[in-house]
Every structure is written in structure tokens, then in C-alpha cells.
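C-alpha cells please, single chain.
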Amino acid sequence: MRTNHRSKMRARQAAKDYMHGADLRAQSDELSDKFLGVKFGCSSFTIRKVREHMPVVALDDEDQALIRQCAAEKARIDQQLPKLSKSYLSRHYQVSPEAIDIELDLAGWEDPRIQRKKRRAA
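Here you go.
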């Protein structure tokens, strides 16, 4: 009985970590070249050039600095993501991915990316 309770607690913690990872993945998606291109009214190719410190006429220096900050933030977030995947958390907490899914369902959690797709469709 005690082992079952510990297993549930590990699965619950893994689910919390996975939810945090999903939030970070959503933030990372919002800092993508494509999304930044839309936000700044230019192409993702222009955003890529700015990130690589190549000369760009379409954006002023302030916007370019902001884009570079966004790229740095995206890189920082992306470094954390592998340790917040369901497969990694499953191994780390020694629980099955299904146990994590059950805890996610019990928490009433829905992936932010799916929520965004539903809003676009509506």
C-alpha cells in the first residue's frame, strides 16, 4: 500500500513537471522565427538574419536588439525542455507514461498548444 501511494506521488510530481514543460514549450513556440516575423511585420528569413547579426534594413536597431533578446530567451527555454518531456520524466520518476497521463487527466489539464489550435478553429 505504501509503495502504491509513493508511486502516485511520483506520478503527480512528474505530471506537474510535465505541465511546466508544456508551458515552456508554448513560450518557446511564441518566440519562434515565424511568430516573431509576424509580430515585427517581416519574414522569418529576416528574423534569422537579425539573430545571426547580419545587416538588416527592414528593422531599426531597437527592434533588432529585442529580437536577439527573444532568441536568447528561446535558447534558454529550449535547453530545459528535454528534461521536461514525458519520456524523460517517466524514467526519472520511475513511473509509466500512462500514470503521468492519468494524473494530468485528474488535474483537468489540457495542452496549451491544443487550446491554441481550438481557439484558432473557433
